[in-house]
């Protein structure tokens, strides 16, 4: 549907230009400063329209290319930041796991020491008694 409207608007613009050209078919002089030419007004109008369209296209293309380059750079930066974040998260997880394992080992030692001091039986002998 979107493209159909573009075609319709394009055809209407072409129709307006054709009607305008037919109404303005007399010869007119054009002075470029260094040269002077004379030609049908329609050719002057169409030439000016084509030159204007080319300037617009060139401007649009350069803007689009700059935007694509910027998008590519931003995607590259995003990927770099994501990798860095993933690395930092992994380091934090590993650090937390090591800390938890150390705390668990300390608590196990304290538990074993308290168990041994309360019962008066060495821990190795307690294990043999349980079996």
UniProtKB/TrEMBL annotation:
Q: Which UniProt keywords apply?
A: Cell membrane, Coiled coil, Membrane, Transmembrane, Transmembrane helix
Name of a matching Pfam family: LapA_dom
Kindly indicate whether the keyword S-adenosyl-L-methionine belongs to this entry: no
Where in this chain does the entry annotate a coiled-coil region? 64-117
Cellular component (GO) terms are:
plasma membrane
The membrane spanning regions, by residue number, are 41-65
Enumerate the spans annotated as Lipopolysaccharide assembly protein A domain.
Answer: 23-79
Is Nucleotide-binding one of the keywords?
no
User: What name is this protein filed under?
Assistant: Lipopolysaccharide assembly protein A domain-containing protein
């Amino acid at each position: 549907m979107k493209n159909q409207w573009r075609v319709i608007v394009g055809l209407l613009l072409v129709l307006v230009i054709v009607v305008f050209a037919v109404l303005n078919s007399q010869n007119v002089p054009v002075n470029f400063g260094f040269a002077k030419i004379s030609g049908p007004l329609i050719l002057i109008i169409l030439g000016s329209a084509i030159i204007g369209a080319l300037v617009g296209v060139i401007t649009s293309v350069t803007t689009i290319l700059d935007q694509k380059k910027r998008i590519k750079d931003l995607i590259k930066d995003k990927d770099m930041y994501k990798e860095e974040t993933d690395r930092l998260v992994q380091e934090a997880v590993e650090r937390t796991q090591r800390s938890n394992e150390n705390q668990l080992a300390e608590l196990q030692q304290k538990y074993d020491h308290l168990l041994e001091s309360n019962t008066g039986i060495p821990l190795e002998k307690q294990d043999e008694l349980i079996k």
